[in-house]
Amino acid sequence: MGKISAQKPVKLITGFIFKDPQYYCKSKDLLASKFGSLDFESADIPFNLTDYYASEFGRPLTRKFLSFKKLIPAQNLPEIKAYTNRLEERLSCRGKRQVNLDPGYLDLAKLILASTKDYAHRIYLGKGIFSEITLYFKDGSFTPWEWTYPDYRSAVYIEIFNKIRQAYAQELKKIDK
């Protein structure tokens, strides 16, 4: 029988998709006021592998990722996703979102994203929120699954998450001392 042990805190990340940078800035500031200071902000990445958001947001679209300095309990993900959904709604104009927020977390073994949509590879967390293991860590790098979205398979994204993972590993060493 395995022993129950405490889960180590995880690294909160958020992905953004937007057309107008002012909505990115507003949502970033609101997230930082809620979850604390940032320790990583990616460069702008063109979001052009799908037209999924084009009718709602227009074009061209940009993707960015952030991570937060303060580590969080993994079980906070449903509340965080509910908060980001409310934030998307708050920043909407004429019934259309101006920013898409994709919160999740990473630990040493995986990148988890939160979703309101169920599917075969998602696990229900409660409060209408599901989780998806989007990437797993193997042989020194994050690796996609067969269901991983095409953009999350890209070398650019994987490099970002590997970099955030390195910072997270250093933070864990401080905690373990």
Question: How would you describe this protein?
Answer:
By secondary structure, the chain is α+β, with helices and mostly antiparallel strands. The protein has one domain. Helices cover 31% and strands 31% of the residues. It is built from four helices and nine strands. The chain has helices spanning 21-35, 54-57, 77-90, 155-176, and strands at 11-18, 38-41, 45-46, 62-68, 99-106, 110-115, 122-126, 129-138, 141-144. Strands 1, 2, 3, 4, 5, 6, 7, 8 and 9 form a nine-stranded antiparallel beta sheet that branches. Strand 8 and strand 9 (141-144) form a beta hairpin. It is globular. It starts with 10 loop residues before the first strand and ends with a helix.
